[in-house]
Amino acid sequence: MYPEKTPIIETYRASEELKTVSIETQMVVANFIISEEQATTPFFRNRRNKQEKYLKEINDNFKNSELVRVPIYLDVLRLVI
């Protein structure tokens, strides 16, 4: 999931629904994480600060699940029109 509000809500809802059929969430993957080294502009610093807030929320919502952080790879980003 992206570390943003809506994906967190949707993932948590899905996780809770899976619990009703005895399926526990064991791992949560957070994609496109901006590292401190990549946060060199005001835009990326602001985005990273927001991500850190949402990563804390993910940790709080999924206490019993492993959180895997997948970094953003700026050299592979492409604009698709």
Set out the fold topology.
Blueprint: H1 5-19, E1 27-33, H2 42-61, E2 66-71
Describe the structure.
The chain has helices spanning 5-19, 42-61; strands at 27-33, 66-71. The chain has 81 residues and is α+β, with helices and mostly antiparallel strands. The protein has one domain (5-72). It has a two-stranded parallel ribbon. The longest helix has 20 residues, at 42-61. The protein is elongated. The two termini are 23 Å apart.
Number of beta strands:
2
Domains counted in the coordinates: how many?
1
Overall radius of gyration: 14 Å
What's the story with the biggest beta sheet?
2 strands, parallel
Overall residue-averaged pLDDT value: 92
Weakly predicted, low-confidence segments: none
Order of helices and strands: HEHE
* Class derived from helix and strand content: alpha+beta
Q: What level of helicity do the residues show?
A: 40-55%
Beta content: 15-25%
How far apart are the first and last residues' alpha carbons, in Å? 23 Å
The spatial strand order of the largest sheet comes to 1-2
**Contiguous helical run count:** 2
Rough outline: elongated
